């Protein structure tokens, strides 16, 4: 673009491009906004009764903010409050909640634009001040639109449990921008206003910490910022000159201390990734993962994208797999190049270091989320910053502004098309599950979710019986695939066991109906690999039990106890004992509490009151406020003759708003205790 053409670009044109990009983003995401709650959304949000607030009282808000004791939203009170506000405004309207998430994404896009413009002022490689160049502002607006449309960001918007990533990124960007502004004002000796921005930055940082894990990036990013970019230099007075040197050391110390404390205090639920992988293997694997995601940021391949990336193999050494060595070499080359060009291309160095540091720090602190797409949401801004600085520096290579503009515009169109295709899959859980399985056939989680879809289809009365049997068998095959992919985990095998127990009960009932009515109905038995199923006790008794194993064992036990399943006598008790006796089992998780509660109810049904009370006490020590644990404890108190204590226990539960099923069970118990009915007549849901 010539100088004349530069001068002809209106001042509002960058803002017009950004606005057009936001409108395009809404269009691209629109199909996915109409989809239902997906996967973890159901348990973390849909079934969390504390989030279904009807009033905005301090008590209800506090209950909502502290309602996630484990899982994806643990330690994210502001995120939980945002979900509670969603329900207060629009009830259970999922569309509204996803619109809110999209709105946060658009707001983050605006902050990205402002941040890139602010940082571009310090690009020493450019031939002119980028802040004063309207053409540069146009390029920055286009790059910000590319970030808004990038397909790797989709899960943060449409997967509601990732709301925390959106919110924490929002506050990190605010904190970062306010800090830069404060440093620039300090340079201009506007000390009072500078202090106000520093205070605002600190408040935003606290909000980021209360929203999600993106806060982990902030101290380290500020260290890189102060080290590489002359925010406050030079200054005219002695105090100012001293202040410009202090932040580099200050943020380095803060980063080291903060990350050290965080690594000791925070434990994250790793879901399907529960294997105890050595830290060395985690960091070796991260070298491959970081380059993998860097490639997807530059050129996203639709077949490589997906919600679950647990099909990526862990590295167990430099040569296992061989790509580990090449990836480490690639990382070293990038770091060395970034260091060598840091004086002339400080923003490129800053962007690359932020991206790499964020991924490796995240791998160290949260190894279970090493394969998650959402981890790229904030660090991808570092890549954008490096690209922005690189495109601006290309002026020295006589690369015209028109060519640069067209290149970025083509990428925006490509990103939007891919993201729109992904959003279409998010219209229904069935379609999404099949898409995830198609893209990642070796993913245990993708296979498991596909099996759940087949189970739903097998229970659809609108489908003819032979097809329902076919879908049921396909579910079994997906579960067995998971069992083969995860040879140390019994979760999928327990799911097959549950399916078989339900089927056995149906066959038993059909047989009785035939005897009584003289019919000849038939049910097709499941085709199950018996040698694989015999591994269940061994898998439960060795290694660290996963959340999936704990949850599915509870389902199996409850199904038998409620006489909905038929199993061989004593087999369920043996499995429960095997897991509870496992020396590697983590004893203080909510899933373990649920299993202890279920084991206590089983023991009570077998007239083992002392054992039942011991198990229930352990469950209550994990979750003392769990309403079902307290109601089952009331049943045990009543059984041993403590009627008044039992009544008080039930009344305490009813004093708080409860889910419909829990409330009904509590009132049933209250009526039974009050009229001296035997507690065995009631059945825990």
Can you describe this structure?
The chain is mainly α and 685 residues long. It contains 30 helices and no strands. The N terminus is likely disordered.
Characteristics of this structure?
single chain; 685 residues; 30 helices; mainly alpha; 0% strand; disordered N terminus
Largest sheet: none
Class derived from helix and strand content? mainly alpha
* Low-confidence spans: 1-7, 124-132, 234-243, 266-275, 677-682
Radius of gyration: 29 Å
Number of helices in the DSSP assignment: 30
Q: What is the string of helix and strand elements?
A: HHHHHHHHHHHHHHHHHHHHHHHHHHHHHH
Mean pLDDT: 83
Count the E strands: 0
Principal-axes geometry comes out as globular
Could you give a quick summary of the protein structure above?
This protein has 30 helices and no strands. It has 685 residues and is mainly α. The termini are far apart.
Write the SSE topology.
Elements: H1 3-7, H2 13-33, H3 40-46, H4 58-65, H5 77-90, H6 94-120, H7 134-149, H8 154-158, H9 163-187, H10 191-209, H11 217-228, H12 238-265, H13 279-298, H14 323-340, H15 346-365, H16 379-393, H17 401-425, H18 429-439, H19 444-458, H20 465-485, H21 491-517, H22 530-533, H23 536-541, H24 547-561, H25 571-580, H26 590-605, H27 609-622, H28 627-639, H29 643-654, H30 660-674
Helix pairs in contact: 2-6, 2-7, 2-17, 4-5, 6-7, 6-9, 6-16, 7-16, 7-17, 9-10, 11-12, 11-15, 13-14, 13-15, 14-15, 15-16, 18-19, 19-20, 20-21, 21-24, 24-25, 24-26, 26-27, 26-28, 27-28, 28-29, 28-30, 29-30
């Amino acid at each position: 673009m010539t100088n004349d053409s530069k001068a002809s670009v209106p001042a509002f044109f960058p803002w017009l491009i950004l606005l057009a990009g936001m409108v395009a983003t809404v269009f691209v995401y629109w199909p996915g906004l109409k989809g239902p709650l997906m996967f973890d959304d159901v348990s973390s949000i849909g079934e969390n009764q504390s989030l279904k607030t009807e009033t905005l009282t301090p008590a209800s808000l506090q209950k909502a903010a502290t309602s996630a004791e484990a899982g994806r939203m643990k330690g994210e009170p502001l995120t939980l409050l945002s979900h509670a506000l969603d329900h207060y405004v629009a009830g259970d309207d999922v569309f509204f909640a996803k619109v809110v998430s999209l709105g946060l994404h658009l707001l983050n896009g605006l902050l990205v634009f402002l941040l890139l413009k602010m940082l571009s002022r310090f690009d020493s490689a450019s031939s002119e001040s980028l802040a004063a160049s309207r053409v540069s502002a146009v390029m920055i607006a286009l790059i910000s639109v590319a970030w808004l449309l990038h397909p790797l960001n989709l899960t943060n918007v449409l997967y509601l449990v990732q709301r925390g990533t959106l919110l924490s990124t929002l506050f990190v960007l605010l904190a970062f921008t306010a800090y830069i502004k404060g440093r620039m004002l300090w340079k201009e000796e506007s000390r009072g206003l500078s202090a106000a921005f520093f205070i605002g930055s600190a408040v935003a940082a606290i909000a980021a910490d209360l929203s999600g894990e993106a806060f982990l990036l902030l101290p380290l990013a500020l260290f890189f910022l102060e080290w590489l970019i002359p925010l406050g230099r030079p200054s005219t007075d002695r105090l100012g000159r001293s202040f410009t040197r202090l932040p580099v050391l200050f943020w380095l110390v803060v980063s080291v201390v903060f990350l050290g404390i965080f690594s000791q205090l925070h434990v994250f639920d790793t879901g399907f990734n529960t294997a105890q992988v050595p830290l060395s293997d985690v960091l070796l694997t991260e070298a491959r993962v970081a380059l993998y995601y860097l490639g997807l940021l530059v050129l996203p391949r639709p077949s490589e994208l997906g919600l679950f990336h647990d099909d990526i193999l862990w590295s167990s050494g430099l040569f296992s797999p061989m790509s580990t060595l090449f990836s480490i070499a690639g990382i070293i080359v990038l770091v060395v190049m970034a260091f060598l060009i840091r004086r002339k291309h400080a923003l490129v160095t800053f962007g690359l270091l932020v991206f790499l540091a964020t991924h490796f720090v995240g791998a160290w602190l949260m190894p279970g989320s090493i394969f998650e797409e959402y981890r790229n949401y904030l660090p991808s801004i570092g890549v954008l910053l490096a690209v922005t600085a690189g495109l601006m520096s290309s002026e020295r290579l006589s690369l015209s502004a028109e060519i640069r503009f067209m290149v970025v515009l083509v990428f925006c169109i490509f990103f939007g098309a891919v993201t729109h295709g992904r959003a279409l899959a998010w219209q229904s859980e069935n379609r999404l599950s099949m898409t995830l399985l198609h893209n990642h056939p070796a993913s245990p989680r993708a296979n498991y979710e596909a099996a759940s879809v087949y189970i739903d289809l097998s229970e659809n009365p609108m489908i003819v019986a032979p097809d329902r049997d076919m879908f049921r068998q396909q579910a079994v095959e997906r579960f067995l695939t998971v069992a083969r992919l995860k040879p140390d985990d019994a979760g999928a095998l327990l799911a097959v066991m549950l399916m078989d127990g339900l089927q056995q009960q149906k066959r038993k009932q059909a047989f009785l109906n035939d005897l009584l009515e003289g019919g000849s109905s038939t049910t097709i038995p499941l085709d199950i690999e018996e040698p694989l199923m015999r591994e269940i006790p061994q898998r439960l008794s060795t290694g660290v039990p996963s959340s999936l194993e704990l949850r599915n064992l509870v389902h199996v036990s409850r199904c038998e106890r409620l006489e909905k399943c038929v199993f061989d006598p004593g087999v369920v008790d043996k499995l429960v004992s095997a897991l509870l006796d496992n020396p590697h089992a983590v004893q203080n998780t909510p899933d373990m509490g649920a299993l202890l509660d279920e084991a206590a109810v089983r023991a009570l049904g077998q007239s083992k009151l002392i054992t039942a009370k011991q198990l229930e006490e352990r469950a209550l020590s994990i979750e003392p406020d769990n309403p079902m644990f307290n109601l089952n404890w009331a049943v045990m108190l009543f059984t041993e003759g403590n009627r008044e204590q039992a009544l008080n226990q039930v009344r305490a539960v009813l004093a708080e708003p409860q889910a419909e099923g829990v409330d009904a069970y509590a009132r049933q118990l209250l009526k039974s205790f009050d009229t001296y009915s035997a507690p065995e007549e009631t059945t825990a849901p």
